[in-house]
Design goal:
- The complex is a heterodimer of chains A (139) and B (654).
- Chain A contains 4 helices and 8 strands, in the order E-H-E-E-H-E-E-H-E-E-H-E.
- Chain A is of the alpha+beta class and 139 residues long.
- Chain B has 3 domains: 198 residues, 4-Layer Sandwich (Aldehyde Ferredoxin Oxidoreductase,  A, domain 1), CATH 3.60.9; 240 residues, Aldehyde Ferredoxin Oxidoreductase Protein, subunit A, domain 2 (Orthogonal Bundle); 169 residues, Aldehyde Ferredoxin Oxidoreductase Protein, subunit A, domain 3.
- In chain B, helix 2 crosses helix 21 and helix 13 runs parallel beside helix 15.
- The longest helix of chain B has 21 residues.
- The two termini of chain B are 32 Å apart.
- Classes of the chains: A alpha+beta (139), B alpha+beta (654).
């Protein structure tokens, strides 16, 4: 079930710029459209839309968080983390990486948010973590 | 309807015509065969015509992901490449970790199949939306690490792509070429890199972001957390010399205790697969001097230089495949390009380039590991080919004038390196060995085939079937022969399947070693269980080393039910494994392979038996075991062909 754009859309195009998979198309000042085949349900468009014109897959209006710096971001509990990289592979904008620690055969490279500005707060990393080592924290 | 665990589509890429199309998969197929190996068997059995040239347009090369990959399970990041093997002429598959398995599903597919042959080098680029064939002429000739690096650097989308590619070995159609991902991790066996090279397909680049959904994500995580606890428990440890002493002790004892995979897990977490280097040599598990030598020829004083501590010394960090909590890999600086990191050699590589050739020089093994991974060539088969060359040289079947001046004496590291370099370039004598030991032996003729230690044309893995006769069954009788990653007595003990399946026998806490060499029904039942279970693991995308933890610690059946929403009993999953095994066997029959004619080297069966060492006097009664195994699988005990009643019971068309 993909996200949808309502008729209240003013065609500002902000949603299109943040969509990580290029699922949104449209002309300025016209109602934009989300291709349901491409949408990955990350919800970034809904958090960004200044007119709250986007509906979640459940049909509710998506909640805007006006300042992107305040969007929730992943925080890692390294006591639980297995360094399995499931979070890194799940991230649609590749903003997570393994720390480039270098030591011995016992050194473990744990994940961290390497490009915080690119994070779209989709929670894919949290959902993908097999051991619940990621929490999305408001900034 | 929402599909859980699987994506429900496969992508077909016709490289001759440049056409790409997606095909929906009937959900019943997943329930019948799972994904991964099973899904591949379903398509390849039907769509590769009888007698297809493995290096021709009719062969299908498939990249498949597992049913559990991406669902919140652990140890389930294995992808497989499948096709008709140009090395053995049989069903071919190779399995690899790294980061490519989730990438297939994130593009919205459970598998990507390539047909036809391109007239110029190309690569496939796919994300969740588009799939395109792009020019790869500028990448042709580059090694695997360079190729991957270039492709990641030049696809600057929001999502960083994942890459599987071939190196020069695959391009030059070496029949022992593999396919690489994540900086030189190879899906090495069956020669499928040559199939990719024959199709002029340099790489597959995937940058999808789709989510894989589990039907019961909460249960998935509960099961994973428990599995993680078992994996992370680790006692303090001493040096790797202790492993050699443990191996010597095991050799001396007349009886053998049942092995709990938790012990192996502890060693894997500490050192990785190389933990067993010295213990395996001492016990008689690792073949020495082309399977003609024994532990006495390569004692602990020699093997210490390639022991676990020595091989892991340059490692800078542990390496974890996708969704793996164990981290048995290690990253070290590249010998060829110190600016980059490579994977440290694994057990199989160290043994195939070490004691098999009487070489105990770790530096040469590091170099060859780097070289072969970059070339995209299977280290086991490369070692097997060099070992055969050395034995031919020793016995006068090859002279210095025929080896381009190389003195192929045992342990001559300069000659070993030079021959492998020539094999990769297909230059001079290297061209003779670039297609593996079996093909080279056939060209040399005379007594050479005796020195090619193979099954069905593929060099055997580095586990001596005279030490564990279970390996002989799977080397010789699997639809994809020569592989060590399916079953053995040891594997059966570690899988612990009797905990989940009441009908399976408990091997006993302690048993006399001699009992391993008796052909009886119990051996066949255990071997068949390993075959079926591995098909389930390969359908789920699960890792063999994870499975060594035992079914109680790696809850594959429970994960499968929670991920898909099915409620299948454990026995039904084993039926699925049997169905996949039978389909793969039928694939071989359709391709004109008579199972009874697949040969394994006599030497690997102890014929004649060794006169000294750990496996002294050991003989594997394979003929008797073969009949019992085939019967247990529901196949004709004389021909190895699945019977009509078995096909009917399993719901497959012969």
């Amino acid at each position: 079930m993909p996200y949808k754009i309502e008729q209240t859309c003013v065609g500002c195009g902000v949603c299109k710029t943040i969509c990580p998979v290029g699922a949104i198309s449209g002309r300025p000042e016209h109602v934009y459209h989300i291709d349901p085949e491409l949408c990955i349900d990350c919800g970034a468009c809904g958090r960004k839309c200044p007119h709250q014109s986007i509906r979640t897959p459940e049909g509710k209006p998506a909640r805007r968080i006006r300042i992107r710096r305040l969007w929730p971001r992943p925080v890692f509990d390294l006591a639980r983390c297995t360094a399995c990289r499931a979070c890194i592979e799940a991230c649609p904008v590749s903003c997570l990486e393994l720390k480039p620690d270098s030591g011995s055969r016992d050194t473990i490279r744990y994940p961290f948010l390497s490009r915080g500005h690119a994070c779209i707060a989709c929670q894919f990393c949290r959902d993908a973590c097999p051991v619940d080592a990621i929490e999305m924290q408001k900034q | 309807m929402t599909s859980y665990a699987y994506m429900g589509k496969v992508l077909w890429v016709d490289l001759s015509g440049g056409r790409i199309r997606a095909e929906k998969v009937d959900p019943a197929i997943f329930r019948k065969l799972l994904s991964g190996m099973g899904l591949a068997a379903w398509y390849l059995y039907r769509r590769i015509p009888a007698g297809a040239d493995p290096l021709g347009p009719e062969n299908i090369l498939g990249f498949v992901s597992g049913l559990l990959t991406g669902t919140g399970s652990l140890f389930t990041g294995r992808w497989m490449v499948v096709g008709k093997s140009p090395l053995t002429g049989t069903w071919g598959d190779a399995n690899c970790g790294g980061n490519f398995a989730p990438a297939i599903k994130q593009c919205g597919y459970d598998a990507i199949f390539f047909t036809g042959v391109s007239h110029r080098p190309v690569y496939l680029y796919a994300d969740g939306g588009k799939a395109e064939i792009r020019d790869a002429s500028h990448l042709w000739g580059r090694d695997t690490i360079e190729t991957e690096h270039w492709l990641i650097r030049h696809h600057k989308g929001k999502k960083r792509p994942r890459v599987a590619c071939i190196g020069p070995a695959g391009e030059k159609l070496s029949l022992i070429a593999g396919i690489s991902n994540d900086r030189g991790r190879l899906a090495a066996r069956s020669g499928l890199g040559a199939v990719m090279g024959s199709k002029k397909l340099k790489a597959v680049v995937l940058a999808g972001s789709r989510r894989v959904k589990a039907a019961r994500p909460g249960i998935m995580k509960q099961l994973s957390s428990k599995c993680n606890q078992d994996t992370r428990w680790q006692p303090p440890f001493v040096s790797s010399d202790m492993m050699a002493r443990l191996g010597s002790l095991m050799r001396a004892l007349p009886a053998q205790p049942m092995t709990d995979g938790l012990l192996y897990k502890i060693m894997l977490r500490k050192w990785g697969t190389v933990s067993m280097n010295q213990a395996s040599i001492e016990m008689g598990d690792a073949p020495v001097r082309n399977w003609d030598g024994c532990n006495l020829d390569f004692p602990a004083e020699l093997s210490g230089a390639i022991g676990a501590d020595a091989i892991t010394r340059p490692v800078k960090a542990k390496y974890f495949c996708y969704s793996c909590p164990l981290g048995c890999g290690g990253m070290m600086p590249s010998v060829i390009d110190p600016q980059r990191e490579i994977h440290r050699p694994e057990y199989e590589t160290t043994m195939a380039l070490g004691p098999l050739l009487m070489n105990n020089d770790a530096a040469s093994i590091f170099y060859l590991n780097d070289l072969l991974n970059r070339a995209g060539m299977d280290t086991i088969s490369a070692g097997g080919a060099v070992a055969m060359a050395m034995e031919c040289f020793q016995n006068g079947l090859l002279t210095k004038s025929q080896t381009d001046g190389l003195e192929l004496t045992w342990g001559n590291r300069q000659a070993i390196v030079a021959l492998v370099e020539k094999m990769i370039r297909r230059e001079g004598v290297g061209d003779l060995f670039a297609d593996g030991a079996s093909k080279a032996a056939a060209r040399i003729g005379s007594g050479a085939p005796e020195y090619a230690i193979c099954a069905g044309g593929q060099s055997l893995g580095m586990h001596d079937s005279r030490f564990d006769p279970g390996f002989a069954i799977h080397y010789a009788l699997e639809p994809s022969p020569g592989k060590h990653t399916v079953g053995s007595q040891l594997y059966y003990e570690m899988f612990g399947l009797w905990h989940a399946l009441e009908t399976l026998p408990f091997p006993g806490l302690v048993y006399f070693k001699g009992s391993k060499y008796k052909a009886n029904k119990v051996k066949a039942v255990m071997a068949a269980a390993c075959s079926c279970y591995m098909n389930v693991l390969n359908g789920a995308g699960a890792c063999l080393f994870g499975a060594f933890l035992g079914i109680e610690r790696l809850p594959v059946f429970k994960w499968l039910n929670a991920a898909t929403g099915w409620q299948l009993e454990n026995e039904r999953y084993m039926d699925i494994g049997r169905r996949v095994q039978s389909l793969r066997q039928l694939f071989n029959v359709r391709q004109g392979i008579a199972p009874a004619k697949i040969r394994i080297s006599r030497r690997a069966l102890g014929d004649p038996p060794q006169r000294q060492g750990a496996n002294k006097g050991r003989r594997v009664p394979l003929q008797a075991l073969r009949r019992l195994y085939w019967k247990e699988m529901g196949w004709d005990p004389d021909t190895g062909i699945p019977t009509a009643s078995t096909c009917k019971r399993l719901g497959i068309e012969p």
